[in-house]
Fold this protein.
Amino acid sequence: MFDRNRLLQLTEAMKGKLVVVYGDIVADRFIYGTPKRISREAPVLILRQYRDDVLLGGGGNAINNILSLGGLPIPISVLGRDSVSDELIAQLTNEGIDCSGILRVDRYRTPTKVRILGGMPHSTRQQIVRYDIEDEVTISEEEAGRFAWLLRDQMSIAHAALISDYGYGAVTPALAANLTGFSRGKPVTLDSRYSLLRYPDVTAATPNEEEAANAAGISLYGNGDDNIGDVAEILQQSLDSEALLITRGSRGMALYERGRKEPIFIPVYGTDQVADVTGAGDTVIATFTLALAAGGSYLEAAKLANYAGGIVVMKMGTATVSNVELQHAIERDEELSDA
């Protein structure tokens, strides 16, 4: 079904492709500590902190993955004016990414997902607890006008666009329409945590099973394989999309294309014994979008995204996949054709 040389050509063609990333940028903070003792105040473990990482999460992780795969991300988002956003902006700037499309406002606190992990420095760390610092921003009429112009302007020069909606307010259906309405045939992909059906006319969407089922109003528990086709049909009709790629964890992916009667199920790449699934969905949509921008079919893009997802879940924390890693996965896959 898949030709090795064709997939390798696509990974090479990803390099230099411009992708507008319109989304909620989140801070993923990882605090690491070594076990010290049990507290006398409560039956809890005391950790001695030895490391504190602040990484790009949410739409920021999609930006990072596009960059690591060789693409050129164009971020359009909103951040607060706080120390966390200073760190995120510094990371983007240090990578040579133009941050002029990121609006910073005092009224908004940059969403931060804090994970506390325990373990010895050279052993596997276990996540003990996570807490989220959340806020929601409302885009003013003046800001919306600026964003609308910026989205249309950047879409005119980009090869594709990616919408990453985590529900914090930076992404709105009205503003996203400036991408879908002015795409001129370029792919516009969607990843929305809670509001999938509010973004019609996208080229393709990449929900996980839970997001897809919630959007369609159908339960997958107990008979997921029987109902997933119904879920996909509802979503495709509501979105009027060309393709729907549903990620299914250890069961791989299911691709539904307009005009194709039967779905294509892609088995998970690698092992189902994962290290960390943090941000895997961001990696999948970043790879999928870049592959479409490079001229790949939906099936080819899904295959490459499946490789990327399988690679990134074997890494700890919010991680990325490189173009070289993607090529190595293709080269090692014995099921590919060499015709």
In short: The chain has one domain: 4-26+57-111+136-332. The radius of gyration is 20 Å.
